[in-house]
Amino acid sequence: MSIVQNSAQKSKWYLPGVIGGLGITMKHLLKNLISKKSMQTINYPEEKYEYGPRFKGNHILTVKKDGSLRCTACMLCATNCPAECIKITASENPDPKVEKFPISYEIDILRCVFCGFCEEACPVDAIRLGPEWQTPGLSGSNFTYDINHLAYRPALKGGIQSHVDDEERHKEGI
Ligand code: SF4
Ligand code: SF4
Question: What is the pTM for the complete model shown?
Answer without folding.
Answer: 0.78
